[in-house]
Design the sequence.
């Protein structure tokens, strides 16, 4: 018996798709991964990703209840805790753009009837005295915010997929794809593999396969960095004492309590260091860490100690920086996903949706905003807008 489904990529999305496909009767799945399984070289490396209901658009907030449910199922089946609830804090200055961004988050939550709490600067400082903020800063708190252990999530999906009969082929680079009307062939240095259906979850390596898939939209890559800072006050930043947070200022900074590593983790979102695929690096740099330390010294001084570690990843972005979650218009048996640097929290749900698209022919949730037919993809004149995620 041949394979019913091939999956390219065994990171957060590919491993999730493999698991959810394995739950469908009659499937035989092979996952092809260029690196080792559960590696730290793709966008699923490191320990944590923010998970939240709060988003700038209902296109995402409509999906978040099902997102939390998907993670709950994976926790129950794997025996691993993947979601750590800390609460989520969004902060804004008095600048118009900053307030507008926070207003969009409030509007999306209100539209989906998800409760949240508005906080003044005084209330923020009373609840979290770690913050050194001016009186013009306002905030919004949503209690379900927290973090997903992204590394454990890949391990959990991989383990569960293996247990359900999925085959994995690590250390195998995909060199090409042949799409036929009712089947596919994936070419690798270790031979060709045929199947009825294909999931492409290649993240920032998708560009290498786009010509074979008949895709020609602009895929922009940005090299990003997170840094962990140690200090003498780490105990003040544990998950029970400090939330995940996003600071919507002139730039967006975001951060985590102490988890996975002995340090406070933070980063800039969309720092805009645009690269070609072959230019990616896996080591962080001191210049970016200095910018992050400057933020800590201004706003979270108790966390502003020496750098413990720098980590990198690459954002893979469509021109509007929204997800691509769809089947190919000319080949509905081939599904593609792009995460645009903010998909980790949705990984299990996206895997489930990809399995639905290839087995049911449709998704059970609204994903029209992420279609390959939308203007940002289909219109070659669309001007890129890499808004903050």
Sequence:
């Amino acid at each position: 018996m041949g394979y019913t489904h091939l999956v390219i990529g065994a990171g957060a999305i590919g491993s999730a798709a493999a698991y959810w496909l394995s739950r469908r009767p009659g499937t035989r799945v092979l996952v092809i991964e260029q690196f080792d399984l559960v590696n730290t070289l793709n966008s699923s490396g490191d320990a944590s990703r923010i998970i939240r209901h709060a988003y700038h658009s209902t296109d995402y907030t409509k999906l978040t209840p099902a997102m939390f449910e998907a993670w709950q199922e994976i926790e129950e089946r794997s025996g691993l805790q993947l979601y750590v609830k800390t609460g989520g804090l969004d902060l804004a200055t008095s600048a118009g753009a900053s307030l507008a961004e926070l207003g969009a988050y409030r509007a999306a939550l209100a539209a989906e009837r998800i409760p949240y709490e508005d906080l003044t600067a005084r209330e923020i400082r009373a609840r979290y005295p770690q913050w050194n903020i001016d009186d013009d800063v306002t905030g919004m708190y949503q209690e379900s915010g927290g973090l997903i252990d992204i590394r454990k999530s890949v391990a959990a999906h991989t383990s569960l997929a293996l247990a359900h009969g999925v085959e994995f082929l690590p250390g195998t680079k995909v060199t090409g794809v042949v799409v036929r009307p009712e089947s596919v062939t994936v070419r690798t240095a270790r031979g060709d593999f045929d199947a009825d259906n294909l999931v492409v979850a290649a993240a920032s390596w998708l560009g290498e396969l786009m010509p074979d898939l008949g895709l020609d939209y602009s895929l922009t890559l940005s090299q990003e960095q997170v840094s962990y800072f140690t200090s003498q006050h780490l105990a003040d930043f544990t998950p029970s004492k400090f939330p995940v947070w996003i600071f919507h200022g002139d730039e967006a900074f975001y951060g985590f309590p102490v988890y996975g590593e002995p340090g406070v983790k933070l980063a800039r979102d969309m720092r805009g260091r645009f690269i070609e695929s072959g230019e990616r690096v896996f080591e962080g740099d001191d210049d970016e860490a200095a910018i992050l330390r400057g933020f800590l010294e201004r706003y979270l001084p108790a966390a502003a100690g020496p750098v413990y570690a720098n980590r990198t990843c690459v954002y893979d972005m469509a021109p509007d920086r929204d997800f691509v979650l769809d089947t190919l218009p000319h080949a509905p048996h081939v599904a593609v996903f792009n995460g645009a640097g903010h998909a980790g929290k949705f990984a299990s749900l996206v895997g489930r949706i990809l399995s639905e698209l290839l087995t049911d022919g449709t998704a059970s949730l609204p994903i029209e905003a992420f279609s390959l037919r939308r203007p940002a993809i289909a219109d070659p004149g669309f001007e890129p807008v890499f808004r903050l995620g």
Notes: The longest strand covers residues 307-317. The radius of gyration is 21 Å.
